[in-house]
Design a protein that fits this description.
The complex is a heterodimer. Chain A is α/β, with parallel strands linked by helices. Chain A has 15 helices and 27 strands. The radius of gyration of chain B is 12 Å and the shape is globular.
Chain lengths: 530, 85
């Protein structure tokens, strides 16, 4: 049995001096990452962290966040990454749901700690590995422990930690339909089933340099960090804000020698449109993986033409299943097809199309994807009801030791055996690769005292998949700017509506429900950015 | 059009086209747009195209680098230099 942090320990033993992680001009070798995370684990244990505790990570992606991840795992506890860009009120809801008493955090977040605590986060101790005593001040109600408390002598792993690969490795919070985020629980086994497959399939070796673009609370980060650690390869953290400047980003990929890139497609679209790829050239790049949203094939095709030596693959799956299907993008002669499949199941994963009545459909018939396999989550943290409604044990044909997740994704298998994704059964949408429950956005808007009624609909967009539009009925005392600010105090910015329409009333269907379909149809002014 | 007038118009375009979580009132000509995450990656693409249209200039890919977009004043200077071309 192997656990996620064993990947680092094994790589540190095999090649201690290889670079494990690069963050700008700072880096850590595998020996440093292994010993450093051991030291931090000892410190966290002193702070009261025990086996099976949940520990929050609240800092910008950095060497310290990786040290934090492995330190937490080495205690048999699980990490809960908090979106560094999300408003403290949202994070406090998550921290309260997960019962986070300890946070590994950074001085750059110090001015937000007091608000996080005021908003109800049950945090008792803040551990700031990069700071020294006196550099930051403890907020009222919590204890502060800095890197000064790290004992340089304690670089061996903490002892007496029991090992089980069914223990949780991390919990990722995603948008929930009622305004409360859902904590998706993934075990070591879940994570490694995906990482082992991906590292094998894409041949990740010690010579590779993997980019780490996705934030830690986004499941794309799991591949970057752990596939690199498994191979003893370097993971290079993409600097914050680099994606604003596609040409700089192209040069950065070239200059850092990235060989495997993984991100949402919209970032790659920017590279095609403004990255001057023909001029920059990316000789070290060999594999591009993308996930999280639809990649418009005209941009994908253009990117592939710029990069004839690169292998491209589309990975698909909700956070609840890591990745469940993948598709190797072929090189097209002439025009690309209108869309691409999500492809075939990954190793050891079975997928069934299921009808409304629960029966399993034949190949070619359209139904709801049910995913069974070792990558499927353990459930939603603290939400037995939602877990029972979507996660089934002993379901399906034959016998399987693994649970089945009812995804809400509607799809069918085509004549080549590839899954074709058609859409969602519910009002969950994707925008810029982020998964958003429209009910979550409506719940935030509804809290504004001047909002009498609202409905939020997706407006299809070829670069970001969807833009969010809000139809709002107000008492007249509020405008768009104030509502955006209001929503952003409660939700991550990517969930804030970009478009607003103020109305006297919302249209109703015959059943009296707000007619969202009519609203979406009324705002079909497709937005284009190129 | 004066630099001040250009800067004013750029701010208007930003308010109309970007989703920003902070207060626009604080965003003056010297406000650090990048450090404060006023612009995100797709907002940047949009902003470039609306500025091109509004001022009838062509912004090259080489111009989309941090030095030109740190503040509204930087962007106004870029627009002025493009108009002079």
């Amino acid at each position: 049995m192997r656990l996620v942090h064993d990947l680092v320990t094994e790589s540190a033993a095999a090649h201690p001096d290889r670079v494990a992680v690069v963050d700008g001009d700072r880096s850590l070798t595998y020996a440093e990452l292994d010993a450093g995370s051991n030291r931090l684990a000892h410190l966290l244990r002193e702070c009261g962290v025990q086996h099976r505790d949940l520990v929050g990570l609240y800092l910008d992606k950095s060497l310290e966040s990786l040290l934090g991840i492995y330190a937490i795992l080495k205690l048999g506890s699980a990490y809960v990454p908090l979106d560094p860009a999300a408003p403290p009120a949202r994070l406090a809801t998550i921290a309260a749901n997960a019962g986070l008493r300890c946070l590994v955090t950074g001085a750059e977040k110090a001015d937000l700690w007091p608000e996080l605590l005021r908003e109800g986060a049950p945090v008792e101790v803040l551990v700031v590995p990069a700071a020294r005593d006196g550099e930051v001040e403890a907020p009222e109600g919590a204890r502060l422990v800095t890197g000064a408390a790290l004992d340089e002598r304690l670089d061996a792993p903490p002892d007496g930690v029991s090992r089980s690969d069914s223990d949780l490795a991390y919990i990722l919070y995603t948008s929930g339909s009622t305004g409360v985020p859902k904590g998706v629980m993934l075990s070591h086994e879940n994570a490694l089933a995906f990482v082992d497959w991906a590292a094998d399939e894409f041949g990740v070796s010690a010579e590779d340099r993997l980019s780490s673009h996705a934030p830690l609370h986004f499941d794309l980060s799991v591949f970057d960090l752990f596939a690199a650690a498994r191979a003893g390869a370097a993971v290079v953290l993409v600097p914050d804000g680099l994606s604003l400047f596609p040409l700089e980003q192209a040069r950065w990929i070239r200059d850092t020698g990235i060989s495997v890139w993984y991100s949402v497609p919209s970032i790659l679209t920017l590279l095609v449109l403004r990255g001057k790829l023909a001029e920059v050239g990316l000789p070290a790049l060999r594999t591009i993986l993308f996930a999280g949203e639809v990649f418009p094939t005209k941009y994908l095709h253009a990117l592939m033409q710029h990069l004839p030596h690169v292998r491209f693959a589309n990975l698909f799956g909700p956070t609840e299943t890591n990745v469940n299907t993948w598709y190797e993008v072929p090189r097209w002669d002439g025009e690309p097809p209108a869309s691409i499949p999500i492809g075939k199941p990954v190793r050891d994963v079975e997928i069934f199309a299921v009808a409304e009545d629960g029966s399993i459909l034949d190949r070619g018939e359209t139904g709801e994807m049910h995913v069974r396999g070792p990558t499927v989550m353990q459930g939603y943290w603290g939400d037995a009801e939602r877990t029972e409604a979507t996660l089934f044990h002993g379901w399906g044909p034959g016998s399987s030791p693994y649970p089945t997740y009812k995804t809400g994704d509607v799809a069918y298998v085509d004549e080549n055996g590839d899954w074709i994704f058609l859409g969602r059964r519910d009002s969950q949408i994707k925008s810029r690769g982020y998964r958003i429950e429209l009910g979550d956005v409506e719940a935030a808007l509804d809290q504004h005292p001047s909002v009498l009624e609202c409905a939020v609909v997706p407006i299809p967009d070829e670069v970001v998949t969807n833009r969010i539009k809000a139809f709002v009925v107000t008492d007249g005392d509020v405008g768009q700017e104030e509502l955006v600010t209001f929503v952003c105090e409660r939700l991550p910015r990517y969930m804030a509506p970009e478009l607003f329409e103020f109305r006297e009333a919302l249209p109703r269907s015959s059943t009296g429900k707000v007619d969202r379909r009519a609203l979406a149809a009324a705002s079909s002014e497709a937005t284009r950015v190129d | 059009m004066s630099t001040d007038r250009i800067a004013e118009r750029i701010k208007q375009l930003m308010v109309e086209n970007l989703t920003y979580s902070g207060s626009w009132n604080e965003v003056d000509e010297e406000y650090p747009l990048l450090a404060k995450h006023v612009i995100d990656s797709l907002g940047m693409l949009k902003l470039v195209s609306v500025i091109e249209e509004e001022f009838d200039v062509e912004i090259d890919d080489d111009d989309v680098v941090p030095a030109n977009w740190k503040t509204i004043r930087d962007i106004a200077a870029l627009v002025e230099s493009k108009r002079a071309e």
